[in-house]
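Bug: token stream looks shifted between consecutive jobs. Job 1:
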Amino acid sequence: MSEWVIGIIGGSGLYAIEALEEAQWLAVDSPWGTPSDELLMGRIEGVRFVFLPRHGRGHPLPPSALNARANIDALKRAGCTDLLAISAIGSLREEIPPGHFVAVDQFIDRTFAREASFFEPGFAAHVSMADPVCPRLSALAADAAEASGAPVKRGGCYVAIEGPQFSTRAESRMFRAWGGDVIGMTAMPEAKLAREAELPYALLGMVTDYDCWREGEAVDVAEIVARLHDNAATARRLVVELARRLPRERTPSPIDTNLDQAVITAPEARQPAAMAKLDAVCRRYFAR
């Protein structure tokens, strides 16, 4: 058993939490490039938290410009044991209205212009994404959101699009036909990279709007920003509630060791240069 260190990936306004103690911003270097921002580290209710503004403070980075590999690597280097993403999403279902939170449990990845793996020539691995979300962390986060006053849907399929443009009506209707429940631009390859880094990952989506599958309606940025501001206080409360609800000690997760079943390159074929870049991602695996 060990200490929880919860990484929170979300908007910059999420981190103005009065309960955050010992707060300090820290720049973390990564062999994968520059993370979106410095990391804000501190404690809430005695639990260590590490916050990363996904789009940078002030939101200068569009979705396709996010260096997800550097972000996940930096959080791993900072000692995170689990990652919770808190993200704005659009709804593809009438029964999931704006203002609801969704504890996502599946993804359809439609991104195409992003680096989606840590594993490059010289060291290959294939992690399972059959169940891409950590059920333990997702349940804890959903409980915390409900305790903070948010209506929560447990379970839902997130369609990740490249962006930065929103969907056409034809695309939005297609995503509904595929079984998508919500839509966004940031969860992929974030969730894939977290799994490669042996970090249990959960995502709470904050529904800001209905996507354009509704006749006569279109997504509006001003509407999204207004809803995000409305949800910000709830999001901050749920982080505090999560700290209060975590078990005192963290028992191991199967995700902690998933590289044991994923690495395929034979030891004699592994290239030192490739392994050097994986010093944080594969730290436990290399130390076996």
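Job 2, same session, no restart:
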Amino acid sequence: MRIQESGHSVPDTGFDSGRHARAKIGFVVLATEQTVEDDMFTLRPEGVGIHFARAPIADSITVETLARQVDDLAPAAATLLPDGSLDVVCYACKSGSLVIGEERVHDELRKVAPGAQATSLIASVLAALRAVGAHRISVATPYLDAINHQEAAYMNAAGFEITAIRGLNVEKDSDMIRLRPDYLAEFAASVDSPDADALFISCGALRSLDIVDSLEQKLGKPVICSNQAMMWHCLRLAGIPDRLDGYGSLFRHA
């Protein structure tokens, strides 16, 4: 066999922008995650690349386990497109981002992706609620009460009034992903209060994307869920204005 020496360089005309010329978005997800990735691919417009890294955590979602994730965010994010081509990098855990605090999360992500806009799931939710003009919010979660208390306090500090918040007292991520969408719709509707401007279904592990549009039509008010808000916010930060039908008024109008 004769091996020819390489003596050919690719001309500029041999390259293009690749499959993801519009934007590239990186997500740091929990090691236990089983829902976020599917939802991001469901909502991904053509020409937008989405990339994932996992941060270690036990199958136990508590204030303590979430707080310990702070030291793992930068190492995980460092594995996302190290060529520096990310447009947006996001910590894809709602409870983790509010326990750690969005500014600390963003600082950790910027350490390894300084050229990308840094965000988090809690920051995405707050931006989505403001985009639909909501101030008084009902919140349905799968969480333990300790996390619900922190969530209510965090959202109050961000300028929202929480009219009701109730959780399902589920600790394991592996159980949260098994909650049936029809059950989630019934539970979330029971938490909603008539004086709320919007209903928020909290947690990226839940399959709430499946029911957000029908529940919104039933309640006659905006319904925001974690993964819907996160992809919407990341796309808008990346300069992608695409609208989508079937995933609530947030994606149709904002």
